[in-house]
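If you are new to this repository, start here. Below is one unmodified record pulled from the training split, so you can see the exact layout before writing a loader.
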Amino acid sequence: MKQKRWRISTYNKEKAGALFKELKIHPVLCGILVQRGIENFDDAKKFFRPESSLLHDPFLMKDMQKAVDRILTAFSVKEKILVFGDYDVDGTTAVACMYQFLKTYHPPTEFYIPHRYREGYGVSKAGIDFAAANGYTLIISLDCGIKSVSLIEYAKSLDIDFIVCDHHLPDEILPPAVAILNPKQKDCRYPFKELCGCGVGYKLITALCEAMELPDDTPHKYLDLVATAIAADIVSITGENRILAYYGLQKANKNPNFGIQALSFLSGFKKEFHITNLVFIIAPRVNAAGRMDDARKAVLMFVAESYDEAMHWAEQLNADNVNRKEADSSITEEALAIIEGDEVMIRRKSTVLFQPHWHKGVVGIVASRLIDHYYRPTIVLTQSGDFVAGSARSVVGFNVYEAIHQCKDLLLGYGGHFYAAGMTMATDKVEAFCQRFEEVVEASIHPELLIPEIVIDAEINFSDIKKSFYDILCQMEPFGPDNMSPTFCARNVYNTGWSKVVKEAHLRFVVKQDNHILSGIGFNMADKMPLLLDNQPIDLIFKIDENEWNGEKSLQLKVIDIRASQYQ
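And here is the target side for that same chain:
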């Protein structure tokens, strides 16, 4: 991997100065808040003390009244309702919330999760046929459905109504559903546009609670699942998502869903949940069910009525995740060996690899892993029945979906967005596709985009890093897109002589700036040790962390990058 580019974010110094006068917190923190759109005391109060009263009225969402009326009609005439969702974390949590709520007040309710490999993404014909064969006359789709025009027309021909709850960008032609809940619709006046699929479902539940005159706190029992979906779907953690995630984390830590409880036990996790733990502990195990087998068991885990029942399903998800990790690791190793053994491939601006035996469920993860080694747009392909299917991942700033679109004449189908996409093609088109995709990338990617960039929030001195500073950093949680954990740099730092390589791959830092000494850890940075040995000043990029050892807590640096000092 090449030397990374460092970029320090700028901010309006006048606004930061005015905010400092109001908040009286460290000027560096004021600068970071201004970068994030927090410019006065009221903004800061809403940011640091999220209030559930600031959640928007669900009836502001287009078609919400229609959706509520249709569901209440189904209640009154005892229609059978089918809750339908995608097989990832956002879809399975959304289905679990909606199914649990509806089942409580309307027993003839069931759920359906399409099988990733037999039915594919989103609303499926098999799911509609299941509904028709079993007498379901209302389907509520969650985290999918906005693009399923012909399938929802098919359902309508069978006298099955659809309510679509989705957050993906709508096309010009919308499906003929009785109600479409999606704040991204052009004529939807809902103020917050960045809800995940589970978030849209949660708003429908809150609207139903209001219409049914249920206690205000009725929907709160689902907030830990909503927070899990927000974390896993990588949506903006601002506005309404920040409030939902804030209270969802409280629920996850005080009174978690049995499924979250069981998965955290199996993973050996005993600390307090933050967004990152939901992303790295809960989400992979839930996603593994759909990747390796059948995601239905993820919903069965989340809706379990006892811890023992949830544990039964959680153990299966955990086993799927072990299999997923083994497949991911072995395929990544094989893929790196292919690239490293091919001089032409090493010099390319893109990576496209095809092996018919690779597991379809992990090709997207493997593409991301390859970008960690060869930082360029990457596609990993495998055999899928009679065709070849694959996943693409991109580097920051490059639209991989648009690049694939320019190869569309070689494809049977494709879909996705700026940074991730999927495609299918005939086996005899793989070589031509590899060549075309490379030509498109080479012609359109700016050379700078092939060098990873680290964005730094602020430069600070070791003397700034105190408990009071760290305490306010912690209050900036929950972290996530548009409110990432702040990244800092410090210049002219020296090794104390105590820094060393640990476990062959990692660096244990003990470094000083002026008279202030701090320790830290740099994972997989053992190759940077020579920079610490020549007694020259270095610059560090890091996050601030808390280390606990023998009951004692101390602040430490979680080092991200290091280079010889640029300013001596």
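Two things worth knowing about this chain: The first helix runs from residue 13 to 23. The mean pLDDT is 95.
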